Amino acid sequence: MTTDVLRPHAEQDHAAELAALAAADDRPRPPAWKLSPWAVVTYLLGGTLPDGTEITPKYVGRRRLIEVAVATLATDRALLLLGVPGTAKTWVSEHLAAAISGDSTLLVQGTAGTAEEAIRYGWNYARLIAEGPSERALVESPVLRAMRDGKLVRLEELTRIPADVQDSLITLLSEKTLPVPELNTEVQARPGFNLIATANNRDRGVNELSSALRRRFNTVVLPLPDTAEAELEIVSRRVEQLGASLRLPSEVADLAEIRRVVTVFRELRAGRTEDGRTAVKTPSGTLSTAEAISVLTSGLALAAHFGDGVLRAADVAAGIHGAVVKDPVADRAIWVEYLETVVRERDGWDDFYRAGQEILG
Ligand SMILES: Nc1ncnc2c1ncn2[C@@H]1O[C@H](COP(=O)(O)OP(=O)(O)O)[C@@H](O)[C@H]1O
Ligand SMILES: [Mg+2]
């Protein structure tokens, strides 16, 4: 589908794949699901259909995690995706909603300021005053719409929401109904309704989930990529897609530059070099896979507009510097040490060493 928007929704972007899956899918579908659980997992992890259609992988990681996530959504429990930033929680939840409900747009962004209206309903005050409480004056939350339409709703960053607002989910998730006392009525969820929440496990303790709420969820923890190869695959695939959708007139000539960014991130995260021989210090920022992707995308933009159109060491060095040095004193020292002890000594990394030096000034 060629909708000219900056970022099409997953169900628009992958409409052809979803249609091919639906056509090939002869397995039982839970009520109101667009696809069977098997087809949903294939959509997420990729595969080849009997008619030869290639389904691109969206998530790279363990099949079992995705199977558990999908199976959960076919039960009366909601799904909680937990993990450090950049482990594809939001990404997976969008694709799950696209594949299961054909609609990934029902979304509540959790923040410390999220109010109950965002989860239940609010009022159009002009109407409320003019006409009194009526269906027409009711402003439905995405959760209410999902209940009414039998779809999935996504709740981002659940643990940032104040505890009393979180608790308004308990009855809704256990009774599958939302009372509207002002209209002396209720909205009962239709088949197909469920909720996918995401939470950052670094936020834990900020607003610890109440045990009553936790019991309504099955938790799936999304890990950082196990191996350098897996991370390289994720990053290169996304960088290529993003570069194309931003129509950047530049190219990644080979995987070397991407491999370098992934290596630097993994080494700093792990606190040692990949050969295990040198200990390095870990900076304060999250050097996530998502961050690596954005360093490379910015690099492509630099290469396109101020370079020769090919991604080079100098194009990624600035981005890496920015990702690593969040604290101008401690992180800078860590980065200088890494440049001097690791980058400088490494064969074939002289261009990157010089670029890094230049940015330090
Ligand atoms: N295992 C993975 N498989 C595929 N993409 C991944 C993976 N890990 C990270 N990504 C990429 O990282 C980006 C950011 O992920 P996001 O869902 O925003 O992270 P989170 O919500 O966990 O902070 C996405 O563009 C996604 O493509
Ligand atoms: Mg997220």
UniProtKB/TrEMBL annotation:
GO molecular function: ATP binding; ATP hydrolysis activity
Organism of provenance: Amycolatopsis suaedae
PANTHER family attached to this UniProt entry: MAGNESIUM-CHELATASE SUBUNIT CHLD (PTHR42759:SF1), MOXR FAMILY PROTEIN (PTHR42759)
InterPro entries noted in UniProt: ATPase_dyneun-rel_AAA (IPR011704), CbbQ/NirQ/NorQ/GpvN (IPR050764), P-loop_NTPase (IPR027417)
ATPase dynein-related AAA domain boundaries: 79-217
Domain of life: Bacteria
Protein's name in the database: ATPase
